[in-house]
Amino acid sequence: MSAPTHLAHQAPQGFIRKYVFSLDHKVIGIQYYFLGLFSVFLGISLSLLMRFHMVNPEAKVSWFAHLWPTSAAGGMMSPELYLSLMTMHGTIMVFFVLTTVPQSGFGNYFLPLQIGAEDMAFPVLNMLSFWTTFLALVVMVSAFFVQGGAPLSGWTAYPPLSAAGRITGPGQGMGQTLWIASIAIFCGASLMGAINFIATTVDLRCKGMRLMRMPLTCWTWLVTAILALLGFAVLLAAGLLLILDRTVGTSFFIPGGLMISDQIIANHKGGSPLLWQHLFWFFGHPEVYIAILPGMGVTSHLLATFARKPVFGYKAMVYAILSLGFLGFLVWGHHMFMSGMNPYSAMAFSVLTMAIGVPSAIKTFNWIGTLWGGQIHFTAAMMFALGFVSLFVTGGLSGIFLGQPALDLYFHDTYFVVGHFHMIMGVAAIFGMFAGTFYWFPKMFGKMMNETLGKIHFFATFIGVYCIFMPMHFVGIAGTPRRYSDFSNVEYLAPLMPVQRFMTHAAYFTAAVQILFLINLFWSLWKGPKAPMNPWNSTSLEWTVPSPPPFDNFAGVHPVVNHGPYEFSVPGAPTDFIMQTDPPSVTSES
Amino acid sequence: MGMSGSITHDIIQGPPRPPVEGGWEGGGGGGFEGRGAFRRASFTGLFVMLAASTMLFAAFTSAMVVRRGLSDDWASMAKPPILLLNTAILLASSLALDLARRALKSRNRARFNGWWTAGTTLGLLFLCGQALAWSQLNAAGVFISSNPSSSFFYVLTFAHAIHLLGGVTALLYVDVQAWRLRLGPAKRTVIDISAIFWHFLDGLWLYLMVLFYVWG
Questions:
Q1: How many CB pairs under 8 A join A and B?
Q2: To the nearest whole number, what is the mean pLDDT of chain B?
Q3: Is the distance from CB of A542 to CB of A111 less than 8 angstroms?
Q4: Residues 217-236 of A with CB under 8 A from B
Q5: CATH code at A400?
């Protein structure tokens, strides 16, 4: 166990201890944030290359040939290169963006502040967790630079493609091994993070911070940590078995009599590729909630703050978060309807999947209830929170289609699925991050971001993502298969090429307007106006300390919480918000 | 703060909590109660970590059950008899650690040092015994890729040994501190945490033995 450094709160001296190997949860949160920011732009670049290739399959680009002399010989992208871009795009986005920023980034920075703690429970473990994540990213990116390049087997790494080695394609040698190693390292980092989050939330809440007084952000971080704890342990086990199949010749996942590239795979027999799918999706489905839950927390928090109303049905929201987390572990089979499973199992998984609609509907209903009759302040942060609600509903509704085994048989390998998961898991979660950034930037960096630029960025991004991902549902219904690099010679898809071109241009546009965000972020860092202590008239504890907060968060003062997290527009109160630390006499808690 | 003497108390009742106004629900966590808060957080962290380890081994187990049921190439591996000796050694080490904790409770530092050293030594001995078991299997031509039965045996025992390596490091740390007479009250948490972790590995090993002899 790490030493109780959070008890001795001297600020560290020297650049390395302060900014590199820092034990301060705030610095670590910012480190995670920038790791995610790097990863998201890397991931976007890869997706642009894919979208470019899809509508220009014959194009010869000279710098492709420089970057990938073998897989883009003469500047023309090979299908294998396309698949490796797809694999790395998915992996980097899911693990190093969606898992990292909302939980490890914002959660690290704001969980201790919002519950009134000086730091996370185990600061050394926290630092280790960040640097382990960093190592995982380095290992992952290095897969681009080894012989054969990055792996081809997608972010789900289904065997036997991922298990049988180099014979299955370029990138399936060293590249795939590095991929698995990186994921295993990432699992370790996530487990360390989860231990810290749970222990901190359970044991370091300040006086008066009852569980039912925690902001909903803290609830989502707690449940996300529990999901990560249980999910990543299983992925770690699966990854270890997969790497053994690749390196020492075991047969956990590789069946006998396999024929790949005209060669019989003789030294393996009896393994089950489906075993991997079960283990992977037992992690993989909760992973979806790991990505989206913190965004739900931020959205709930912001809707209340900027509508100047309490969260509608706070307790129902808490129970919805808990039941989403619980149900998330019971539905992995809906990713495997295509696997030839017993139809009765499929039906059970389908019914459980439909059950997720209940807590999801509770959340959506309560978000609307929170907004209803509120005095809505349309800040950039609020707009992204509203955008989250929109994307969550849009992406969630297509999930109801996919949860039906009979429909999924048709939809499963089409762009319908790509549209669905990008809407709900990708873009909705990213809108949650944008909302968090605009809301918390003043606290994190002591500067205000530019609201006008933020709103332009919001509208452009909001329209852009709908233009990219809505048509994907339609081309999917029309039968466009996913994971293919080139549709130009497929007759029945020819009429859809204009739609594909439209999506590609929408992707260029949406990626380009993210530069507005970068400009806003970095310009505000240097030149933004100084942020006051509580610019949004929020109620939670992080707004009771200076922006940015001192090293030990509360400058030696022990906060005492007397109020719930969302006491806005309380009748009889002097202002339209009551801070959680205000004396109980301000007005009685309802 | 009261020290809990027995493992059963710790697991069933949870770690001893200092009185907090209003209890866990009512008074919040008490983030500024110094060592009390750190002790409680350490126990929570430990149990959360044990949950993760349990999930890891549950995943391996379910993989084993599925892999065994799905194919006809499962040939049960012959277990080296030294495993039974290793089991006894591990059980004895757990017993020694708990005797040490009892000695500490009755403030007998010398007896604590003796028993703790005994437990640590037995722990190291178990690791040596495992190394011997693997080399015996190796010599008999039973490798990790020989059969799914041996694959799972190596994977599970190795994963257990990695956990044990972490546990032994903690035991050694406490032992060195004890012999250097640096075992102040602050170290009690480390003692309890490493002992409970060790008992967990003990239970895990018994589970693995049952698994191998019944299913492996």
A1: 163
A2: 86
A3: no
A4: 229-230, 232-234, 236
A5: 1.20.210.10
Number of other CB atoms surrounding residue A147 within 10 Å: 11
Q: Report yes or no: A72 and A78 within 8 Å, Cβ to Cβ.
A: yes
Q: Do residues A384 and A438 lie in contact, with contact meaning Cβ atoms separated by under 8 Å?
A: yes
CA distance readout (Å), A265 to A247, A258, B68 = 14, 5, 21
For tokens 């109160």, name the residue: A573
Beta bridge partners of A260: A263
Say what the ipTM of the complex is.
0.93
End-to-end CA distance of chain A: 41
B1 found inside a domain: no
From A391, A390, A386, A319, select the one nearest A358 (Cα to Cα).
A319
For residue A207 the two structure tokens come to: 């006086």
CA quadruple B63, B65, B69, B73: dihedral sign: positive
* Predicted confidence (pLDDT) at residue B4 exceeds the cutoff of 60: no
The per-residue pLDDT for range A341-383, each reduced to its tens digit, is 999 999 999 999 999 999 999 999 999 999 999 999 999 999 9
Q: What is the DSSP string of A154-173?
A: TTTT-TTTTTS-GGG-TTTT
State the best of B24, B25, B32, B160 to mutate against chain A, taking most chain A CBs within 10 Å.
Answer: B32
pLDDT digits (tens, 9 = 90+) for B138-188: 999 999 999 999 999 999 999 999 999 999 999 999 999 988 887 777 788
Q: Is the pLDDT of residue B8 over 50?
A: no
**At residue A74, does pLDDT exceed 80?**
yes
Residue B13 pLDDT > 80: no
Is A554 inside any structural domain? no
Q: What tokens appear for B135 in the block? A: 């080399």
By residue range, what is the domain housing residue B73? 7-214
How many structural domains is chain A composed of? 2
Residue for token digits 């032992």?
Answer: B175
How close does chain B come to A56, measured CA to CA in Å? 44
pTM of the predicted protein model: 0.93
A230 pLDDT above the threshold of 60: yes
Residue among A7, A191, A199 minimizing CB distance to B52: A191
Query: Which CATH number is B38's domain given?
Result: 1.20.120.80
Which range marks the domain in which residue A454 is found? 310-528
Closest CA to A419 of A477, A498, A487: A477
DSSP code per residue over A175-195:
HHHHHHHHHHHHHHHHHHHHH
A251 touches chain B (CB under 8 A): yes
Bridge partner residues of A265 (DSSP): A258
How far apart CA A535 and CA A193 sit, in angstroms, is: 30
Output the average pLDDT for chain A. Answer: 95
C-alpha triplet B129, B132, B134: angle, nearest 5°: 115
Q: Are A223 and A322 in contact (CB under 8 A)?
A: yes
* N residues, chain A: 590
pLDDT interval class at A138 (50, 70, 90): very high
